[in-house]
Amino acid sequence: MKLVTAIVRPERIDEVREALERFGVNGLTVSQANGYGQQRGYKEVYRGAEYNSDLLPKIRVEVLATDDLVDGIVDAIISGASTGQFGDGKIWTIEVYQAVRVRTGERGASAIS
Amino acid sequence: MNPVFFSVGLDVNPQTLDPGSTAWMLAASALVLLMTPGLAFFYGGLVRMKSVLNIMMMSFGAIGVVAVVWALWGYGLAFGPDTMGGFIGDPFANFGLSGLASVIGGKAPGLPDMVFIGFQATFAIITVALISGAVAERVRFGPWLLFAGLWVTIVYAPIAHWVWGGGLFGPTGIIGSKISALDFAGGTVVHMNAGMAGLMLAVVLGKRLGFMKDPNIKPHNLPFVMLGAGLLWFGWFGFNAGSELAADGIAALAWTNTLLATSAALLGWLLVERLRDGHATSLGAASGAVAGLVAVTPACGFVDPIGAIVIGVIAGAVCALAIGLKFKIGLDDSLDVVAVHFVGGLWGTLSLGFFAVPSAKTEGGLFYGGGLTQFWPQILTALMVTAWTAIMTTLIGLAIHKTVGMRVKEHEELAGIDITEHAETAYELAMVGGSFNPGEPQNGKTPLSSSGDQEASSNGKTDRMRSKAST
Lengths: 113, 471
Prior knowledge:
Number of helices of chain A: 3
Order of helices and strands of chain B: HHEEHHHHHHHHHHHHHH
Number of strands of chain A: 6
Number of strands of chain B: 2
Structural class of chain B: mainly alpha
CATH architecture of chain A: 2-Layer Sandwich
Oligomer: heterodimer
Mean pLDDT of chain A: 93
Strand order of the largest sheet of chain A: 2-5-1-6
Largest interface: A-B, 14 and 19 residues
Strand order of the largest sheet of chain B: 1-2
Shape of chain B: globular
Order of helices and strands of chain A: EHEEEEHEH
Helix content of chain B: 55-70%
CATH topology of chain A: Alpha-Beta Plaits
Strand content of chain A: 35-45%
Radius of gyration of chain A: 17 Å
Largest sheet of chain B: 2 strands, antiparallel
């Protein structure tokens, strides 16, 4: 079992979600995030005074998956999130020790299917 | 003044109620009062989210204190019978407004004195509230109320008496009998006065922690600022057109000039921003509108519409340029009260030297055939008002600050003045955990402000709000 975490552009989240749905993912978690990589922050001006923000708003997408689906999920996220510009984000995958469906108490692969 | 405007009330006994003018002045007074809650939104959007309730409470607190002080002795000081050679009015002649309830025409033909008293009370209220912007996010609430009461008594009431109450600058005053300054609705009494008071109080209290360093010290809600500017503009029609104290042609002229100068100033500010910073901002539009309102305040009943447009566009540009000065001198005039109200008020007051239309009250401004005759009275009044408010505000501020203390403690300022002064937060961000004690509030201060061992939790609150603010 793996946890796929992706940081994507806020304006691409709908495309990412659609691509994941087409691939067959039927559950995910989305949260707001702030950060920077090669794309840096932006400038705001209030009454002539410049404010530089280092952190850009991003969306974090998290998907739990069985090992066989991970590559397909990563490809789906890339297809939805990619624009070719700096700031498209990152995807990483980590090993998950256990997953439990709270309602039924199911564990392992059947908890996330 | 243009004689065609003189139609109402002159051929009748001034003690006979003029229903039309009375109705208009009742409505105008309510409009002016609405400016202070409007200002609360304007200022509220400009501060950080941890200070929005406190800055709005400074406006609401000013309403509470000043209205009561006004009725008890403030009105008497400003508009009571002349005493001390025109320096102040006699507060004891009608203490608590006694004996005034049924007087008609005592202050303006056909108007009940009570509507004049109420109208003037709303002016005193907003003048005090304006000062709060210069010292936002760091003043203890109780001492602020004390300041409001003392300031309206010692600073506002005498100046109002000089300019409007028949005192020093009045037609029979020591100065006014020789030279006649023009101030239709309060460029000196309200705006230069509040602007200079704000500057001195900011000097007395010092700057906020992180001023010119912390990138999070920036406006937290620009739609609030736009809403506040709109409410101010709406109320300002009562402020300016109501200052004619009658429903007549001059009031209508003041109304239209209040529309035109404000619109021109909005454009003037945006033009400076577009050229200097690259973008026309919503905050610039709101700020430019207020700058125009300030500048046209002394002028609105004395200039023609073209004059109002020119006064407005210059006000917008000049105030937009003045706004960076605080960073050059390191003065934390937090919400730019000096750049907008003092500078705008000064320009509006001086502008009458150029744009006043000849009338019974003036030979006219430089561009209207009067030479510089109107210019010198304007400068003299501006100087006297500035000097009085600068000296007395400093003394009042120091007196309160050195005795009871006017600033919140450092850890309270970091935690957020809303929670330490008022035990409230404007926005519920966490919605997790805690406990609830209905009917049994813990007496006194909130835990966050009680002692040093709460530092950790207060910093935790700050961090949480900071991280949320940057999303």
